[in-house]
């Protein structure tokens, strides 16, 4: 079975975990509980072939920013999450995007 490694990145409190859990389990989490690092697996179908998504839900706080290079190095796909009601969270994803480009070169 083919496996795809996806990393979810974004500022703290923007809904990375809520989005990930909603996708994996179909359950929406309303309460904010800061994540350090959570790992999920979901079986999906890609081009009619069974596959597994390995999803890494990362911490959004700056104290864990130093771990991002490792997450990015191991990731194959990336989801950058921001909040529509927090302009700064949108600004915060640009350096993350730049970091992905730098690490994956």
TrEMBL record:
The keyword GTP-binding applies. One of its GO terms (biological process) is signal transduction. This is Small monomeric GTPase. Pfam families: Ras. GO terms for molecular function: GTP binding; GTPase activity. GO terms for cellular component: endomembrane system; membrane. It is found in: Endomembrane system. The lineage of its organism: Eukaryota, Metazoa, Chordata, Craniata, Vertebrata. SUPFAM superfamilies: P-loop containing nucleoside triphosphate hydrolases. Its main location: membrane. Keywords: GTP-binding, Membrane, Nucleotide-binding. NCBIfam families: small_GTP (TIGR00231).
